[in-house]
Specification:
This protein is of the alpha/beta class. It folds into three domains: about 160 residues; about 180 residues, Lysozyme-like (3-Layer(aba) Sandwich); about 40 residues, no CATH class. The protein is about 35% helix and about 10% strand. The chain has 13 helices and 15 strands. The strands form five sheets. Strands 7-13-12-14-9-15 form a six-stranded mixed sheet. Helix 9 packs across helix 11. The radius of gyration is 35 Å and the shape is elongated. Keywords: Cell wall biogenesis/degradation, Hydrolase. Its EC number is 3.5.1.28. This is N-acetylmuramoyl-L-alanine amidase.
Length: about 425
């Protein structure tokens, strides 16, 4: 692995990586051995010590050969061929999706999902056999250094067992910001980001269907009608009592906090880092009022989202994701969770990969207003010294009069009795003729 530079701290501790990897394994019906093989691979590909000499697993972007990877959360950079992310997956030489998109390669849950999809069916033969486990990892990775994977067998199991036993050390740089329980801080976090764009419904601090468990991300929806209000989200529907989401975002960019507790927004579905059919207790739900409905009940599925609304969505996502200590991949559309189970397509025509890249830019401060230029220092002109001529103003004016009009105001003899102005005028007329 050829690293170019590291951040001071990685995006995740090794234990956090292990838990997320194992969650994907369980979702695919795999076991701890599959997780260990994936962790062996991650350790081999991106394991390196930090500035304090502590071993970490890094998520490098590759700005020189795959510039798009810089749009996604990363903690390091590398120039190792076209490889990027925890598993050093590559596109083809002409951009072919050998390993999905840049977003797939840079998002841990998606990259390890692709790894598991290529894991041989007979991987369980490698139980208690580091050498065979390394060979199985090599069958997926096809590395130029096939013998290195087996060397990380012990580390992978040590980290996995510690992660699953909750015996996790303090994350680098301080305590984890992950949150369990209701997000009572919603207004405190959103107010600095939104200013007067933020509103609250009365009683939001007590609204909800019970208490959150650990909050793992944000789920984005659209209401199905741009005229749906925050109060309608609080009230719910005849077939589903409200509140239906924690936050409502109007077309004009007004953001309203609806409820602090669990809301009925997710329904049936699945996603790698969420429990199947049980996302309401683990995701903050956000309903965006869209699209416009015509008098005949029709709508345009290609309708452009208002700029003010998109910007508010981006700002909300960046603020809450930062507060939760998560990366941008933990913003998902309802369609990504419930598309197969419920046929959902919200939030409408928004490309969630594009949206996540915009949130990542926001989290990096790329939309912050530039510092105004420092105004130039105005240096007053120097004060000219008074003339040394001792004559009075009257004397000076009389001399100017004589020069213009001639002695006594009767013209200059040298100019034929003409004043200086008349003489010049005569010369000008002759030249013009």
């Amino acid at each position: 692995m050829s690293f170019v530079e590291f951040d001071a701290t990685p995006l995740r501790t090794r234990e956090q990586v292990a838990r997320e990897v194992h969650a994907v394994a369980l979702d695919k019906g795999l076991d701890e051995l599959a997780s260990a093989i994936a962790l062996m691979t991650i350790s081999t590909e991106v394991g390196a010590n930090d500035e304090n000499g502590e071993r970490q697993w890094w998520c490098p972007a590759n700005p020189s050969r795959d510039e798009e990877t810089m749009n996604y959360p990363h903690d390091s950079t590398s120039d190792d061929s076209r490889s990027s992310g925890y598993l050093q997956q590559q596109p083809g030489p002409n951009g072919e999706p050998w390993w999905g998109t840049a977003y797939d390669r840079m998002t841990l849950a998606r990259s390890v999902g692709m790894f598991f999809d290529r894991l041989p069916d007979d991987y369980r033969r490698a139980a208690d056999n580091p050498a065979l486990a390394g060979q199985i990892a090599q069958r997926v990775q096809r590395s130029a250094y096939p013998d290195r994977y087996a060397q990380k067998w012990a580390e992978a199991w040590e980290v996995l067992r510690r992660a699953l036993s909750d015996d996790e050390p303090t994350p680098p740089g301080g305590n984890s910001m992950a949150w369990t329980g209701d997000p009572i801080w919603l207004e405190d976090v959103l107010r600095p980001a939104l200013g007067d764009r933020l509103k609250t419904l009365p009683g939001w601090q007590n609204a909800g269907h019970g208490d959150f468990k650990d909050i793992r991300g944000l789920m984005w929806h659209h209401t199905g009608n741009s005229r749906e209000s925050a109060q309608s989200i609080r009230n719910g529907r005849p077939d589903l009592p409200g509140p239906l989401s924690n936050i409502h975002i109007a077309p004009d960019g007004t953001v309203t906090i609806v409820a602090v507790g669990v809301c009925w927004h997710a329904g049936q579905g699945s996603y790698p880092w969420l429990p199947t059919n049980n996302a309401n207790w683990h995701t903050i739900g956000i309903e965006c009022a869209w699209p416009d409905i015509a008098p005949d009940g029709s709508y345009d599925p290609g309708q452009r989202w208002p700029d003010a609304q998109i910007i508010a969505m981006r700002d909300v996502a960046a603020a809450l994701t930062t507060k939760l200590g998560l990366d941008v991949s933990h913003n998902i559309g309802h369609k990504e969770y419930a598309g197969a189970a419920q046929g959902k397509w919200d939030p409408g025509n928004i490309d969630m990969n594009w949206f996540r890249s915009e949130v990542a830019k926001d989290m990096r401060g790329e939309f912050d207003p530039a510092n105004p230029p420092t105004p130039p220092v105005v240096v007053p002109p120097p004060v000219l010294p008074g003339p040394a001529n001792p004559r009075t103003d009257r004397q000076l004016l009389e001399e100017i009069w004589d020069q213009l009009r001639g002695p006594g105001g009767n013209g200059w003899p040298q100019l034929g009795g003409k004043t200086l102005v008349d003489a010049i005028a005569e010369l000008t007329d002759k030249k013009a003729a």
